[in-house]
Design a protein that fits this description.
By secondary structure, this protein is mostly helical. Helices cover 68% and strands 0% of the residues.
Length: 353
C-alpha cells in the first residue's frame, strides 16, 4: 500500500480512540507510512498522538516506559515541525504539550494563538483552542470557535465529539448539543451517549435525558452494551427529579460496582447530590494522578459546580494552575476568523434527533 493509504488507515485508528490495542495498530501503520515517505509530516503528527494515547491509557507502565512513550510522543511533533514549521496540527499539539506536560498556560496561550493564525479552520487547532479558552474562562472565544468547528467540519465525528466536550466545559450547552447531534451516527454509542446525557442533564431536559438511554440501547449491539452507562443516566434522571429516598445508597452501589471504570461519573453524582467528601475522595483517587491540564479540564466540568464553595476547591485550582490569580496573568487574544455564515443559535435551531 502507498504511504497515503497507510496514513489514512492509521489516522482512522488513532482518531477513533479505540484503546491501547487500536492505538498500537495505528502506530504500526504510521511507522510503515513514514518508512516509505520520511517527510510525511501528517503521519508523524498522528504517530505522536498514538504514543500520547498509550502514555495515558497503557496500564502497568514502569517509569522507564513512561519516559519512552513521552519521548516518542514528542518525537512525532518534532519531526513534523522539522519538515514544516507551520504545520497547523503539530503547532496545536505543541501547545497542548506545553499545557499538558508543563502546566505552562502562559506559553501555551502564545502557541495556541500561533496555531490558530496558521490555520483557523483546522479541527485539531480549533479543539485545542476551544479547550484552552474554556479552561481560562474565555467563553466568548470558545463560543466563536465552536461555531466555526460546527460549520466547517459537518461530518467529522471525532472533531465534533471533542469540540462538544470543550463547549460543555465552557457552559455552552446548546452549542455542545448541536455539535454532538450532528454526528451521533458517526460515533461509538457509549462515548457519545454519556456526553449527550450530561448535556441534557445540565439543560434540565428530563425527557431528552431518558431518550438518550433508550436510543443507546437501540443503537448499541447487545454484546457491546454497557449497563453502567444506562444506570448512570437513570441516576442522573433521579437527581434531576429531586428524588431523595434511597438515592444515596443507589449512588454508593453504583460507585462500588463501577467506580474503577467510571470514576468521573461517580464523582459527578456525589457532587450533584451534595456528598462533597466522597466527591473529593474520588478527586484524590483519580484526578490527582493526572497531568495539570487533565486536572484543569476535569475541574471545568459543570457537574462539579456545588464543590466550588468548598475550601478544598481552591487548593485543587492552585494545583491545576487555574486559580483566579494564575489566570489573571495569561494573555490570550487570538485573531478570530470572520463570523459570517457560521451556525446561529435561536429557539428551535437544535439539530433534529
Amino acid at each position: 500500500p502507498s504511504a497515503y493509504a497507510l496514513y489514512l488507515e492509521g489516522r482512522h485508528l488513532i482518531q477513533s480512540r479505540g484503546g491501547v490495542i487500536t492505538a498500537r495498530r495505528g502506530i504500526e501503520l504510521l511507522e510503515q507510512a513514514v518508512a516509505i515517505e520520511p517527510a510525511y509530516a501528517d503521519a508523524w503528527v498522528e504517530m505522536g498522538l498514538g504514543y500520547a494515547q498509550l502514555l495515558r491509557f497503557e496500564e502497568g507502565q514502569t517509569e522507564g516506559r513512561t519516559r519512552e512513550l513521552d519521548r516518542l510522543w514528542f518525537r512525532g511533533l518534532s519531526k513534523a515541525l522539522e519538515i514544516d514549521s507551520d504545520h497547523p496540527a503539530a503547532n496545536a499539539y505543541l501547545a497542548w504539550d506545553t499545557m499538558l506536560v508543563n502546566g505552562d498556560y502562559i506559553n501555551a496561550a502564545e502557541q495556541f494563538e500561533r496555531a490558530l493564525g496558521i490555520d483557523p479552520y483546522d479541527w485539531e487547532v480549533l479543539r485545542g483552542n476551544i479547550l484552552f479558552a474554556s479552561i481560562i474562562g474565555r467563553t466568548d472565544i470558545a463560543d466563536v470557535l465552536g461555531r466555526i468547528a460546527i460549520t466547517r467540519n459537518p461530518l467529522c465525528g471525532p472533531c465534533h465529539r471533542h469540540v462538544s466536550r470543550s463547549l460543555f466545559r465552557a457552559g455552552l450547552f446548546d452549542l455542545a448539543e448541536i455539535s454532538l447531534l450532528n454526528v451521533m451516527d458517526l460515533l461509538p454509542p457509549g462515548r457519545s451517549t454519556t456526553e449527550l446525557a450530561l448535556i441534557r442533564y445540565m439543560k434540565g431536559d428530563h425527557d431528552g435525558l431518558q431518550r438518550v438511554a433508550s436510543d443507546y440501547l437501540a443503537r448499541a449491539r447487545p454484546e457491546d452494551q454497557d449497563i453502567a452507562i444506562v444506570r448512570h443516566i437513570e441516576l442522573l434522571g433521579a437527581v434531576l427529579r429531586g428524588e431523595t429516598g434511597g438515592l444515596q445508597v443507589e449512588i454508593d452501589e453504583f460507585a462500588h460496582r463501577w467506580g474503577d471504570r467510571h470514576l468521573r461519573s461517580c464523582a459527578e453524582l456525589y457532587a450533584e447530590t451534595g456528598q462533597l467528601d466522597k466527591a473529593f475522595e474520588l478527586f484524590e483517587r483519580g484526578y490527582g494522578t493526572q497531568y495539570n491540564s487533565d486536572l484543569a479540564a476535569g475541574l471545568m466540568n459543570p457537574l462539579f459546580r456545588k464543590m466550588t464553595e468548598d475550601p478544598r476547591w481552591k487548593a485543587w485550582q492552585e494545583k491545576a494552575g487555574i486559580a483566579p490569580h494564575q489566570l489573571a496573568v495569561i494573555e490570550y487574544q487570538p485573531n478570530l476568523p470572520p463570523a459570517e455564515g457560521l451556525v446561529k443559535l435561536k429557539p428551535g435551531d437544535l439539530a433534529s434527533e
